[in-house]
Amino acid sequence: MASNRGPVSYTLDETGRLTARRGGGGLVSGLSAIGPGTDAVWVCSALNDSDREAVRRTGGTLDPADTGGQHVRMLDVDAQMHAAAYNGIANSVLWFVHHMLYQTPMEPVFDTEFRRQWAAYEGYNRAFAEALAEEAAEGAAVLVQDYHLTLTPRMLRELRPDLRIGHFSHTPWAPPEYFRLLPDDIAAQVLGGILGADRAAFLTQRWADAFTDCCHAVLGPGIPSGTRIGVHGLGADVEFLRERAHRPDVAERMRTLRAQIGTAPDGRPRKTIVRVDRTELSKNIVRGLLAYEELLRSRPEWRERVVHVAFAYPSRQDLAVYREYTAEVQRVAAEINSRFGTPGWTPVELHVKDDFARSLAAYRLADVALVNPIRDGMNLVAKEVPVVSDEGCALVLSREAGAYEELGEDAVTVNPYDIVGTARALHEALSMGPGERAERTKRLAAQATALPPARWFLDQLAALEG
Ligand SMILES: O=P(O)(O)OC[C@H]1O[C@@H](O)[C@H](O)[C@@H](O)[C@@H]1O
Fold first, then answer.
1. 146 lines ligand 1 (CB under 6 A)
2. What is the value of pTM for the model shown?
3. Which pLDDT value is given to residue 387?
């Protein structure tokens, strides 16, 4: 397996001690299901100086005590090359294209700086292809992950024609008219790189179709190399989540959260709208807050009776646009609190420090979960909440999330750009009776766990072999 982010990343303290921490996001959740006891090797990249130090100390093969027993080879790619490939191309161009995030008349600009970064991206993809060519046994299956590594499949194919190669995209795929913002030669390289694989797979049929449409538009009719296309909709890991959500640290955080949420003037517990995201532009956190503000403005009966618990965990803080977005989220939350708050009621509880136990606590007690991304490959939060909810939780879900294909029927769905429409959806979700809420949650949980991570992975392997 190959991905930019591995299962762990390190921090180095003043005493020189390295501590491994588990990474976040759907990709890591999916691949982590392939636990110890297999001969799988996970090739990933050092993401920061502490990771580079870990690579220096271990020679690149991480200590299994740090990785939960998985065999992990971490590559020490040149720091500048990694920065240009990861921040420059992967996060600022390919992520923006697939999530359709360019929104000003001056963006994007593909200039000589972009071409320089593209050369780094090629070098970065080649480093992976070379490492995989070294690691893989004769005839092995190799699963290459995501937009960071679109060129690797073709490069690896040239180095090792004996391998069976799969590529998996964890993001949406842009429709041709948006994908073709990319310069023609770059668009062709991205598609041609993935088509170097025997099989290219996606989280939903919608993204798979968009990829095929892009191939036709950019490369001409037909999938030229005979690459097969597949769909595997990653689901929630029900056993892990239910066990983890009932540990004492989660119960303790539920007590703290309940105290923060408090009771309404009539003495009943306040209703809770929960969201949990990386502070990510595509997650649409600011519009979510504005919709909540609109709810409080247009439906004064909810004032003092509801709290919006918003967890927005730091992400990609090397990029100015992410830092600015984080500040904007904080500014809008503070504004709502100063406009509507009273001495006994804080309308928005915004927390930015990553705490998985607290996220699970919020999932368990939420009355409403708000998942309103502009676009999202899948969105696992939408699938995790129904699985761990104690008494049923109404899901407000963007129709642009991949999870909508599976969960749309039992969610209250929204156009993520429509603030008034989202406020109405929040009102509808808050007003849903307990019986209906519990019934819908049960059906959502069944859908959400249809393809748990281990099967998601094994299905891909089986399909690649077939
Ligand atoms: O930049 P980061 O933090 O490694 O996040 C990347 C991952 O973020 C996840 O949320 C996406 O599902 C993946 O597509 C992506 O690979």
1. yes
2. 0.96
3. 98
